[in-house]
Write a structure and sequence with these properties.
Elements: H1 2-14, H2 28-39, H3 57-68, H4 72-90, H5 98-109, H6 129-145, H7 151-169, H8 179-195, H9 201-230, H10 242-251, E1 265-266, H11 267-276, H12 278-281, H13 284-294, E2 300-301, H14 305-316, H15 323-343, H16 366-382, H17 397-407, H18 415-418, H19 424-475, H20 481-506, H21 514-521, H22 523-555
Antiparallel strand pairs: 1-2
Helix pairs in contact: 1-4, 1-5, 2-3, 2-17, 4-5, 4-6, 6-7, 6-8, 7-9, 8-9, 8-20, 10-15, 13-14, 16-20, 16-21, 19-20, 19-22, 20-22
Length: 560
């Protein structure tokens, strides 16, 4: 039955139309652009204001899909299935009941995260967050489980963790939220090794450090490749470049207006910056044009859109002719702005900054953050906006065709394209009809998950509370088995909170449409919550079973 349902899930994925957002030139199509250059041996393409704006992991996945000849939807669902199977294989010693084992497998395979329209239904990087996360966790737990075995059995888990975590790290620019849990698990594994009987600590300790070393090496390696290609050591222009310094300067300028929840860099802040930075002022005309292109010249742009407008303006002014020219330009602007801050010509906002890429928060922001955090957490539990709709693709026809080629898939064209091309309507009707059938089935699946979301969360929470109580009780008798599992689940829950806090903070400017935007960035949190629920329910079932067996034993009716 499990095999049949898995095959059925693969068939549904293959028949689900892929949404090609060709007009998302800074998101979906940029991923395709990167992948195309990788396939041609051009790294990320000729240097421009788009180079190093996004991570490298997803373009590598896209390039792999193209080379494999597999349909994108098929490659993605196979990636999810393999990742789920690998994770469950890694923790198989923790799940004794084979039926429960298979049930968890199907629960994760049919999860709405694997087919939601704006997660897995588009050609964008969030689609691979969940499967990569499961591989990272599988390697992490596998390393913990095999900590006392011969070194040759620990090595694959350690190397696998290093490779998978490095790949996960470069999917997005905010994946650092998983780092505390990985470090905590490595530390807990080290403590368990130290308390064990084998005193050859150094070789085992080196295998715990190896994944972090591999992450550092991959970071340096990408930076060196960019240095070789463009003459500047950088991994992402939002971190470690003078561009990031300038944007950090801009969002910290105090223009006397405390209402910056939506507009992080007001027009007044830009004017103040230009008045103190002759270098920035030299592109004021290009900046005006860029702001108008992006939507406004009066009040400023919402959120971090100003960063894109600044890139565009500097590019139009010729400062993106090469990486060195770009870096020197931003370095000079940063130096001038810092001098203005030091002299008092510019005042800094009194706010708390978590990241140089996001505005600082004040006490006035707490109600909004609390509201969004609460709503975001609820959507992680009840799958909020996780649905599958066979939407038409968007953007220029030539861009959609490029995306079709890269993904080995067909798109449902917008009416503007269908009406211009003879005979395409029949093919589009067939594609959309089949896609509607598959989407309807997945829509029912999503509804089932939504209906049972809080039930599973409640059962998982009850099991988690019982695990906590039993951990405290066992500690009195110096038994730490339950405590270890309690700490692991707690670590996963804290990772969800860290992720959600970061998303809530960064997306505060989306306040008017926050409800429909939260799940774009928290899909990995849904998977973590599912794992926590499964762990809690497993412990609940074991507790109930143990209680029943004790009662039977007391009544004299129990036979082991």
């Amino acid at each position: 039955m499990t095999v049949l349902l898995t095959v059925f899930r693969i068939m549904l994925a293959q028949k689900t139309p892929l949404i090609m957002q060709g007009d998302a030139t800074l998101d979906d199509f940029l991923m395709v652009y990167y992948a195309g250059n990788l396939l041609q041996g051009n790294w990320l393409g000729a240097f421009s204001n788009l180079v190093c704006a996004k991570g490298i992991s997803y373009p590598l996945f896209l390039a792999g899909v193209y080379l494999s000849g597999l349909q994108y939807q098929l490659a993605l669902i196979l990636f999810n299935i393999v990742a789920i199977a690998f994770f469950l294989f890694a923790v198989r010693t923790w799940i004794k009941n084979k039926y429960l084992y298979l049930l968890i497998f199907l629960f994760l395979v049919f999860s709405p995260v694997t087919f939601a329209s704006q997660i897995s239904g588009v050609v964008y990087r969030d689609a691979i967050l969940t499967p990569t996360l499961l591989i990272v966790l599988g390697c992490m737990f596998g390393l913990f489980i095999h900590r006392g075995e011969p070194l040759r059995k620990m090595v694959p888990w350690s190397v696998g963790l290093g490779v998978s975590f490095s790949y996960f790290w470069f999917i997005r620019e905010d994946t650092y939220w998983l780092l505390p849990f990985v470090c905590a698990m490595l530390l807990m594994t080290g403590i368990a090794i130290w308390r064990g009987k084998d005193r050859r600590l150094l070789p085992r300790a080196s295998l715990l450090v190896l994944p972090l070393v591999m992450l550092a090496v991959s970071y340096v390696g990408i930076g060196l490749v960019n240095y070789h290609e463009y003459g500047l050591f950088m991994v992402n222009d939002r971190t470690g470049t003078s561009f990031s310094d300038v944007f950090s300067d801009l969002i910290s300028i105090d223009d006397g207006d405390d209402d910056t929840q939506v507009i992080w860099v007001t027009r007044d802040m830009l004017d103040l910056a230009c008045s103190q930075s002759p270098t920035l002022d030299s592109i004021s005309d290009e900046l005006d044009a860029s702001l108008e292109l992006w939507g406004t010249t009066d009040t400023g742009l919402p959120g971090d859109i100003t960063a894109w407008a600044l890139r565009t303006a500097a590019s139009d002014a010729g400062y993106y002719s090469d990486a060195t020219t770009m870096e020197n330009f931003y370095a000079q602007v940063h130096e001038e702005l810092q001098a203005a801050f030091d002299s008092g010509a510019l005042q800094q906002r009194s706010a708390f900054y978590v990241s140089s890429s996001a505005r600082g928060m004040t006490a006035d922001d707490v109600p909004l953050l609390e509201e969004n955090f609460t709503e975001g957490f609820a959507h992680i539990i009840d799958y909020g906006y996780y649905d599958m709709d066979p939407l038409t693709s968007t953007g220029p026809f030539q861009y959609i065709r490029i995306m079709e080629t890269m993904t080995n898939s067909l798109a449902i064209y917008p009416d503007s394209v269908v009406n211009q091309i003879d005979d395409v309507g029949v093919a589009q009707y067939g594609l959309s009809t089949v896609g509607n059938v598959a989407s309807a089935v997945l829509g029912k699946v999503a509804t089932l998950y939504k209906v049972t979301g809080y039930v599973l969360f409640g059962l998982g929470t009850l099991g988690y509370v019982l695990l906590f109580i039993e951990s405290i009780r066992d500690m009195r008798h110096r038994r730490f088995g339950n405590l270890v599992f309690f700490l692991i689940i707690t670590g996963l829950l804290l990772s969800i909170l860290v992720l959600l806090f970061g998303v809530t903070w960064f997306t505060s400017w989306m306040a008017p449409t926050y409800q429909s935007n939260i799940y774009y960035y928290t899909s990995a949190g849904v998977t973590l919550m599912q794992l926590c629920e499964c762990a809690g329910i497993i412990h609940l079932v074991r507790t109930i079973k143990a209680a029943v067996e004790r009662k039977k034993a007391k009544d004299g009716t129990y036979r082991p």
